[in-house]
Amino acid sequence: MSAQPVRQPHADRHAGWLELFFDLVFVAFAAQLSHSLHGDPGPRDFAVFLALYFPPWWMWINLTVSANLFEDDSPRRRLLMLSAMFCLAAMAAAVPEADGDAGRAAVYALGYAGTRLVLLGLWWPATRLPAALRVPRWRPLSYCLVSALLWAASAAVPLPWRYAVWAVLLTAEMVLLLTARGHGITGRLHTGHLVERVGLFVIIVLGESVIALVTSTDHAWTAQAGAVATLGFVLLAALWWSYFDFGSTSAELMLGSAEGSRAYLLARDVSGFLHFFVTAAVISMAAGLATAVEEAGHAHLPRGAVWALAGGLALYHLAHACIAVRFGRPLRAVAVWAVPGIAVPLLVVLGAGTLAPWLVVLLLAAEAVGHLLYARTLARRRSR
Fold first, then answer.
1. Are the C-beta atoms of 213 and 287 separated by less than 8 Å?
2. C-alpha triplet 278, 283, 285: angle, nearest 5°
3. Among 18, 103, 133, 309, which residue is least crowded by beta carbons within 10 Å?
4. CB-based burial, 148-185: b 16+ in 10 Å, e otherwise
């Protein structure tokens, strides 16, 4: 059965069972990446984390958009998505030491190449749609097939040149995407479905943070560890509350009110690019929280752990500030909550050598709760 164009944006549509099953592989990805920042990570560890996280995120958003545009539950599509899930699972398994082990790096590259071939299979039926919706054949051939072949060939490139090749290939993919202006089928996104899918991904990374809090108590079953874990849970609960009451709701309203290519461009920038930093920040915080629980009895946290935790929260607020500006919010209004949201965690980083683990998490939790209370107060004023 060939893919069909999506329903009109007002139609009620939610994530399917296949999409939810597919997302489970990113639970493993989040755990692997978070573990890479455990303890006292340095600048190189953070760079490797971002470099290894972007390709699977990029593929997830590409596959999510294809599912958004084409309502197709045929066995063909199911097999393609399950194949992508297997490829991503192989990439997740290769994450540990992928920056130094040639064999793991090769598996990572070949796994990503496989996902590009899956994407080609998903998009190819769109080249046979009516003229108004048809995708030119050169786009999936260059964006998917050529990219897949080059990624597979990169497995034979020696380290560290292989990583330079990956960077060039990812840049080329983004350039191809940026040249698509949202005409034809790419201008028919179902925005509600897309917002829901991105929100479910945020739930995955928040869930990894909760898992990190729970499992870290295995190594530190003390009253201090329990207090730090409790404060960490308050921090995550406040982030969840503010994201789904305000961030996600605002995104659905803004994207839903946009039309044609503007809706596509907003969705591309907010969901595709800026939410990479939102989710990366939460994964980083998961690692920092786990370390804080395990180090609860120490005088202070390692500086790298404070950067993972407090720096992650600062990045989280910065990404949301950029999203608000991209939606057209006045810069002055955004700065009211963004400046303290970024400044407080960075001040915590400055005190990393003197602050006890419980105090670090307490200050960050207080900032997150204060941010939530401010947003709720502002919402009540606007409603009146």
1. no
2. 95
3. 103
4. bebbbebbebeeeebbebbeebbeebeebbeebebebb
Please give the full DSSP string across 279-325, using - where no structure is assigned: HHHHHHHHHHHHHHHHTTTSSS--HHHHIIIIIHHHHHHHHHHHHHH
- CA angle in degrees (0–180, nearest 5) for 117-123-127: 125
- How crowded is residue 218: how many other Cβ atoms within 10 Å of its Cβ? 10
Per residue in 126-171, pLDDT tens? 777 776 667 778 888 888 999 999 999 999 998 888 889 999 999 9
Whether 235 and 364 have beta carbons less than 8 Å apart is answered as yes
How far apart (Å, rounded) are the C-alpha atoms in residues 126 and 133?
A: 8
pTM reported for the whole predicted model = 0.90
* Of 48, 38, 42, 36, residue with least CA distance to 303: 42
* DSSP result, 175-212: HHHHT--S-GGGG---HHHHHHHHHHHHHHHHHHHHHH
> For residues 71 and 18, is the Cβ–Cβ distance under 8 A?
no
- 10 Å Cβ neighbour count for 350? 11
DSSP type of residue 41:
-
Residues of the chain where predicted confidence (pLDDT) is lower than 50: 1-11
How far lies 347's CA from each of 33, 303, 306, 342, 363, in Å? 26, 13, 11, 9, 10
* d(C-alpha 31, C-alpha 117), whole Å: 26
Residue 32 sits at φ, ψ, to 5 deg, of -65, -45
pLDDT at 8: 40
Alpha-carbon distance values, 270 to 48, 191, 265, 303 (Å): 23, 12, 9, 31
